[in-house]
Design a protein that fits this description.
253 residues, alpha/beta, globular, disordered C terminus
Length: 253
């Protein structure tokens, strides 16, 4: 009986999430659409996404944020933002953390999600990981965005790992790109997103979302041959946080 009630609660919690995702898009659709007509209006789109989409979703889900910052982002600089990836809430949490406008680099398949996908393919840098030409094109599009004063965000695991994996292996892309464009890497640890809204359907629930913005890692004096060491250093930093801080995750990789 109790299990059945809990499962009904989980289902309603999921339905409520998708309502919260869709509702701001429907309400503000004209404004969102106008700000995607030209890339120069992207900062305005970012403001709308951050304040009128991500904020209502997180607070509507009962997930207030608690963010610890070892270093603050400067408005006039571009960065490579990287974090562990465990939940759809990661997108909203990243938007709440950074006031600096940034562009997500993500897999092409997300463009198929109704409503969300319409804007995703208009403003994000999409990559087809099975297409070499697509992966190469990411660097050209990222350079254009960086030249516009924006930052780039990549979840370096390349997707959401299986539930039992605390942190998957990292792909090279974010680190290769950061070195090529001489921009600092901003490592972040997201502690609670999997607990609050994982990809296991009958799971999750309200509660705080903790995140830590670690000290930035400069890349000015690095070369492409350093990307593997840089990648593993960032992964070790995030993994250490996940396995030594109380997260409800087992230290299994």
């Amino acid at each position: 009986m109790l299990t059945g009630i809990k499962n009904i609660g989980h289902v309603l919690y999921r339905i409520w999430f998708y309502i919260l995702v869709a509702l701001p898009i429907i309400i503000f659709f004209p404004f969102l659409l106008i700000t995607t007509i030209s890339e120069k209006w992207y900062p305005q789109f970012f403001w709308l996404a951050r304040n009128l989409w991500a904020r209502p979703i997180l607070y509507g889900m009962g997930c207030p944020t608690r963010i610890q910052k070892e270093q603050k982002l400067h408005r006039s600089k571009s960065y490579m933002l990287v974090a562990n990836h465990t939940s759809m809430l990661d997108i909203m949490l990243m938007l709440r953390i950074s006031k600096n406008p940034f562009v997500f680099v993500g897999k092409k398949e997300l463009s198929k999600i109704p409503l969300f996908g319409f804007f995703y393919k208009r403003v994000c840098i999409m990559v087809d990981r099975g297409d070499t030409k697509s992966r190469t094109g990411v660097y050209r599009r990222a350079q254009r965005r960086l030249n516009q004063g924006l930052s780039i965000c990549i979840f370096p695991e390349g997707g959401v790992p299986e539930e039992h994996i605390v942190l998957d292996t990292f792909k090279d892309g974010a680190f290769k790109m950061a070195i090529a464009h001489n921009i600092p890497i901003v490592p972040m640890t997201f502690y609670d997103c999997k607990k609050r809204f994982s990809f296991t359907f009958l799971s999750g629930g309200p509660g705080k979302l903790r995140a830590k913005v670690h000290a930035f890692i400069e890349t000015e004096n690095l070369h492409e041959t350093d990307k593997s060491e840089l990648r593993e250093n960032v992964r070790d930093l995030i993994l250490n946080e996940l396995t030594t801080t109380k997260t409800g995750l087992k230290p299994k990789v």
